[in-house]
Design a protein that fits this description.
Blueprint: H1 2-16, H2 23-46, H3 54-62, H4 66-91, E1 93-99, E2 104-107, E3 110-121, E4 126-136, E5 139-144, E6 147-151, E7 156-160, E8 162-165, E9 169-178, E10 185-193, H5 195-213, H6 216-219, H7 222-232
Antiparallel strand pairs: 1-10, 2-3, 3-4, 4-5, 4-6, 6-7, 8-9, 9-10
Helix pairs in contact: 1-2, 2-4, 4-5
Length: about 240
């Protein structure tokens, strides 16, 4: 398992960032691989995968306690969350630049074209809304519309970022203050790789816990109370009807 974790860590690090990456990112990926692959290997060992016929392995999997399924799901999900946290911490990209409509800029392999900016009226605010077209290798990815809102009642200005989420990353665009001549705006662009995996792992851990709780051994404690009462000579309460 240790060798598998190291190999996966080195391979992912080399793939994501040619030439290597931060040392702690390598450690984080190794831990993620250990948790994810380890949980799958342990589950495969339980059902004797590749050591018996597929039918026997399937029967073993079907009759495994739900707590075993829940543990596998939760531990594998921990690995996904660790990988997500490592990826976004080590390889996130940020660009802060001055742009005017018609300008282009590239961030993490994505090209952002500042199409236009206009005024819009909200229910209790006025806003400058920018429109950005995002492409990658010439393919359209998304249209993002960040806003810079001004609230007249509170005299407060806020920035509403536009977010595009994929399986592997999050893209953020924020429209900042205009420049002194008013022809350009400060634009902040962020690329956070593997952020969705943090949430996928969190949902998986919750699902694993719920699956474990459906195991009958964790839901019914009456047999234990009866055995304890028998040892002490006391009377136990009748078992609840199932």
């Amino acid at each position: 398992m240790a060798g598998v974790a190291v190999v996966i860590a080195v391979a992912i690090t080399a793939y994501v960032k040619a030439g290597g990456g931060p040392l702690m990112a390598l450690v984080g990926i190794a831990l993620a691989a250990w948790a994810f692959v380890g949980s799958l290997v342990e589950f495969a060992d339980r059902i004797a995968l590749f050591r018996t016929s597929f039918r026997n392995s399937w029967n073993r999997a079907v009759h495994l306690p739900r707590s075993a399924w829940g543990m596998t799901i939760a531990h594998a999900s921990i690995g996904l969350s660790i990988l997500g946290m490592t990826g976004t911490s080590a390889w996130q990209t940020e660009s802060i630049t001055s742009m005017k409509p018609g300008d282009r800029t590239s961030v993490a392999g994505y090209e952002f074209h500042f199409d236009s900016v206009g005024l819009v009226n909200g229910p209790n605010f006025k806003a400058e809304r920018g429109i950005f077209t995002v492409t990658k290798d010439g393919r359209p990815i998304a249209t993002l519309e960040p806003e810079r809102r001004s609230y007249s009642t509170t005299r407060m200005t806020t920035t509403e970022s536009a977010i595009h989420t994929t399986v592997f990353s999050d893209l953020y665009v924020a429209l900042g203050d205009p420049t002194q001549n008013g022809t350009a705006w400060i634009v902040r662009i962020y690329h956070h790789p593997l952020v969705p995996w943090i949430w996928i792992g969190g949902v998986g851990m919750m699902l694993g816990g719920l699956v474990s709780l459906t195991d009958r051994r964790f839901r019914i404690g009456a047999p234990e109370r009866r055995r304890a009462a028998g040892k002490t000579g006391g009377k136990s309460a009748p078992l609840p009807a199932e």
